[in-house]
Amino acid sequence: MVIGPRYAAISGWGMALPERVVTNEELARRLDTSDEWIRSRTGISQRYVAAPDEYTSVLATRAGRAALERAGLPPAAVDMVIVATCTPDRPFPATACTVQANLGIPGGGAFDLAAACSGFVYGLSMATALIKSGMSNCLLLVAVDVFTHLINWNDRSTCVLFGDGAGAVVLRASAEPLGLIAANLGAWGEGEMLMAVDAGGTRLPLTPDLLQTGRQYVHMNGREMFRHAVRGMAESAEQALAAAGLRFEDVALVIPHQANLRIIEAVARRLGLPLDRFFVNLDRYGNTSAASVPIALCEAVEQRRVQAGDYVLLTAFGGGLTWGSSVVRWG
Ligand code: ACO
Question: Residues near ligand 1 with C-beta < 6 Å?
Fold first, then answer.
């Protein structure tokens, strides 16, 4: 029981990837594209693509189990599960309920959160608020997407960009000032059609005729998304840092959403920071949507680029449009 100010320390982390790797060369064999184009325009060399039996809850369960093991906690310790995803197993019930059952978590709440690629930073804020308010003592947050499910594999302008995966953290109530210290969340609904899956919901239900139009797949205005992503991540990172009362010099590592290396380079330039202050792993994974930030966080911790007591700045951007940044004190 934490008396006094409550914080939400990250006490476990884990990730999961599908088995199959699809390289740029493989895509170039069946599409009018090339390894050179994909690498030079995006920085991506390969991505992991889920098999039919590696659907969202399967990857989420694997990442969640790894995070619980790392935290050294039994499933019964968890009193809340949040799954951030825009590719749930089903329209309902929530994938979080499936993950709760798969992990043998006996009770507490479970719900999904939809904020596209910003899902993890949104989820971290919601999770921390639940713990700070006393509504949760131990929470599992999983950010997962099987985004390739939404892709038209004949559309070279989108299919080369995305991959599948899951990342998870366990948050526990703590009296020490650890975990999320400050955050900034934003959205601009007017930009909803800059990146969207138009059909498949209540507005445009799937019909045999509609399936012929391809509107069940993601479509995107790449150039506009690029522009908004750079501005959204840079400005929200600055605002979150200011809210924490910190400067960039105080931050050990910036972990940005992994969509495109050129976006990360442009954010770094805009913030006047060298690129080596940013964690980059998109060459191996592509854009894994909500999972990209927690997968990068897991790898950064495993590579010891984040140590106990360090401040880490997470920043993300996605469909919605949504964006957000989190200042986290690692402990
Ligand atoms: N291979 C070869 N040529 C291609 C490919 C491809 N895979 N894709 C597009 N091209 C062509 C285009 O058809 C175009 O040809 P044209 O000039 O003859 O018309 C040319 O390449 C240039 O296309 P642009 O779209 O201008 O290329 P750009 O340099 O802008 O790169 C990209 C496109 C990579 C999509 C870039 O705009 C981008 O990364 N945008 C951000 C997208 C993003 O990150 N979205 C996700 C954020 S939200 C989330 O993560 C859920």
Answer: 33, 37-38, 41-42, 116-117, 156-157, 160, 195, 220, 222-223, 225-226, 229, 259-260, 287, 289, 317-319
